[in-house]
Amino acid sequence: MRVAIIGGGGLVGSCAGFALQCGGIVSELDLIDVNGDLVKGHTLDLLHGASLAADQRIRNSGYEVIPHCDLVIITAGLRRKPDESRLDLINRNTQLFLTILDQVKAAGLSQEAVVLVVSNPVDILTYVAAHKLGLSWSRVMGLGTVLDTARFRSLIAEAMSLPATQVSATILGEHGDSMVPIWSHAQIAGMPLSHYPGWSTQLGDQLFQRTRGGGAEAIKLKGGAGFAVGLSIREVVHAVALDSKRILPVSSVIQGAYGIRDVALSVPTIVGRSGVVAQLQLELSPRETSALQSSARVLRETINQVIAANPDAAAATASRPASPSPAASKAVSTSGRGMVRVTMGGSGR
Ligand SMILES: NC(=O)c1ccc[n+]([C@@H]2O[C@H](COP(=O)([O-])OP(=O)(O)OC[C@H]3O[C@@H](n4cnc5c(N)ncnc54)[C@H](O)[C@@H]3O)[C@@H](O)[C@H]2O)c1
User: Fold this and answer.
1) What Gene3D superfamilies does this protein's entry cite (predicted)?
2) Residue 34 assigned ligand-binding role
3) Which residue among 89, 228, 231, 239 sits deepest, i.e. has the most Cβ atoms within 10 Å of its Cβ?
4) Ligand 1 proximity of 128 Cβ (cutoff 6 Å)
């Protein structure tokens, strides 16, 4: 699989490159960035380690490679200031993002490619990309709450002295202030986390607050998130490359799950070679469902503001709906323990 990282010279893009090199799954990696020397330096550094990692072709490239790429990751963007909300970033980032989308489209992006948006505010930019790129809605994903979920699990594990990979806890909704912790399904080694000795609701609240502020904490301490976001990107890229159908909280344009439409955010999503294979509506507590719906309202309001302030994004949005025909949705029984509503992604347009 050939993967391009637009913004590959930046902190997030270069950490994603290193994570993908260590992962050894993708065969070709193209780093693209307007900062020529920096991206050349990162490419050279990665290349130096190739003999100790994997047989991959690693190049510093331009947009001309886009038609040959199976997956395009966009990490180019402006960083959040310490006290700036992700949504405030939108005014500074949308114009830059639209320029990049134009370049990607003009280069001749394949209809079979998958695009992974990482730049913030990721849910808004995922929605814009889904409308602007002319791909099926299911081929455009955002990193969504994959990083937040990783942080959440790791912080719970650290506080409880548990092995991090055995903590299972998910964050859904916006990658931002309205994100929703899904306590009703949180587990340690397959058992309810709420029953584990030493666990309390108060500790849970503290850990969630720290998770929600994790990005700002990393910005204050080291200028921005890098390693964990790199690994989060790798998780999604490998699910696509291996067609593994992993269930990940990526962001995509929601097609009716939880009563939500016409907004991109994170719900449990099956990810495979064609991007979003299906969006799942698993049963949540009434409180969690309503928090998810209010997260969707927050994002919808911001999209409206973006469309009002950005004629370019508005024109693209109006001309190319991200859901041209109603997506197939069905309820599937899970051995008498309730129903899961499944909204299938398309394999083409
Ligand atoms: N979704 C998430 O979970 C998540 C997590 C962390 C950071 N982010 C976001 O990722 C983005 C990048 O963060 P960073 O810390 O890597 O910033 P950074 O400043 O280190 O890197 C951004 C890179 O983009 C490049 N760039 C700018 N315009 C470009 C263009 N037109 N074409 C190609 N490259 C271009 C810059 O030269 C720079 O190297 C930000 O928007 C940040 O908020 C998202």
Assistant:
1) Lactate dehydrogenase/glycoside hydrolase, family 4, C-terminal, NAD(P)-binding Rossmann-like Domain
2) no
3) 239
4) no
Residue 107, pLDDT score = 97
Cα distances from 23 to residues 20, 44, 148, 259, in angstroms, run: 5, 18, 21, 37
Nearest to 251 by CA among 92, 103, 113, 115: 115
Give yes or no for residue 10 CB within 6 A of ligand 1. Answer: yes
Which domains are delineated in the chain? 2-142 (3.40.50.720)
Cβ atoms of residues 302 and 238 within 8 Å: no
Mutate to test the pocket of ligand 1, among 120, 229, 265 (most ligand atoms within 8 A of CB): 120
Query: Closest residue (by CA) to atom 20 of ligand 1?
Result: 10
- Measured torsion, CA atoms of residues 214, 219, 222, 227, in degrees rounded to the nearest 10: 50
Identify whether the C-beta of residue 321 lies closer than 8 Å to the C-beta of residue 131: yes
Pocket test for ligand 1, best of 14, 31, 34 (most atoms within 8 A of CB): 34
Q: What angle do CA 349, 77, 244 make, to 5 degrees?
A: 45
- Cα 58 to ligand 1 centroid, rounded to whole Å: 20
9 annotated binding-site participant: yes
- Alpha carbons within 13 angstroms on the beta-carbon side of residue 188 total 17
pLDDT at 339: 66
Please, what are the averages of pLDDT over each run of 10 residues along the chain (349 residues)? Answer: 98 98 98 97 98 97 98 90 72 89 97 96 95 95 98 98 97 97 96 95 97 95 96 98 98 96 97 98 96 97 87 60 64 61 69
CA distances from 137 to 68, 118, 268, 340 (A): 20, 16, 16, 21
Q: Is 195 a catalytic residue?
A: no
Can you read off the two tokens belonging to residue 142? 């955002």
Q: Is 79 in the pocket of ligand 1 (CB under 6 A)?
A: yes
Q: Please report the pLDDT score of residue 320 as a whole number.
A: 52
Residue nearest (by alpha carbon) to ligand 1 atom 31: 100
At residue 87, the pLDDT reads 63
Cis-peptide into 121, omega within 30 deg: yes
Model's pTM, two decimal places? 0.94
Compute the distance between CA of residue 62 and CA of residue 31 in angstroms, rounded to an integer: 8
